[in-house]
Amino acid sequence: MEYKFVGPKAWRAITKAIQTAGPRYAAVAFLGSDAPKLMPLTLGDVLVTNASDSAVRSHSTSPQAIETYLAAGVEVWSSGALHAKVIATAERAVIGSANASARSSRRTNEASVISGTDAMIAWTRAFVIAEKSESEQVTAQDLPRLNALWADGADQDNDRFGVPGINTSADELVTTSDARFFVCNYGEVDVDEVAGKEMNRIVRRAHRSTNFGTDWLVLEDGDEFRIDDVLFLWDDDGLEAPVVFIDIPRDQADGSRYQAYRYRTDLDWKSWDELEEALDSSNYQRLLPDDLYIEGDLSYWNADLARALLDVWDLTAPLPTPRIVYDPELVPAGPASRSDAIPHRAPRFRKIARLAPESHL
Description:
Oligomer: single chain
Order of helices and strands: EHEHEHHEEEHEHEHEHEEEEEEEHHEHE
CATH architecture of the largest domain: 2-Layer Sandwich
Number of domains: 2
Radius of gyration: 23 Å
Strand content: 15-25%
Helix content: 25-40%
Shape: elongated
């Protein structure tokens, strides 16, 4: 078997696929109490999960499941940044969306790819090992504290203890180091009234948030952003506070395309004089061209400028995930890993038009 796609109820196939020779390496973000039945790991296996305080308090990760795994001889590690759901055995690799929980097994629609190729197995195993190296080991000594956190969450309003991006809105504007960023100019355009009302309705219903304001941009033909991309818009007066995209582009009846973003309502634009004072000379000089357009990402490509601009508004982004270096003797020849690839240049978004300020939600 090279590849098999399973879903929308994927766990039966996953459980069967991983009941092969070990040791097994799993990185699954959240565990329900029945995780050991869905993902029956045993002595010598490795599990990386999110056993952070917020994950346990919000009942996203079960201390009972962790206790069962530890009793079975599984090596358990915790990473608060983990969101992956991957498993590698000696014969199979599983890569998909499903957490190890009854909710993912019975209630939600999930999808996974099960692969038997040596390269995919090796890459998946290497990913888990790399995550383990950046995690903290969980032992039996941690169980009383984890159980106390679980009990505390049961006695409280769980919304207080939600996991950002999982069961609550993310607390930070920028939530991933993998995001791209753009610095570009924009112009105002006339917005069709009917299309504008429809987009307002979509944004209100799909992206209601008590933490952020939401709005949308009109896109030029062929342009689009990815979810989590960060945008800094400039004009003759200065630079707008950053916004983060939260949806895919939407086509409207008038033929235009819109894309929703969120922003911090307490942040204001900065004048060029304020930017000159806040930035070091080299970064400020990069903002001076009349046709200013800069793109990059928050981890490697122009990341120093992106993070310096975020710092102007006292904003932060997660630290980059260490790049995985694969052992060429371990991994058979095959497609290069995207983890080691320099990002390709993205389409330019020089002419992005924004909804007039009075139309903000």
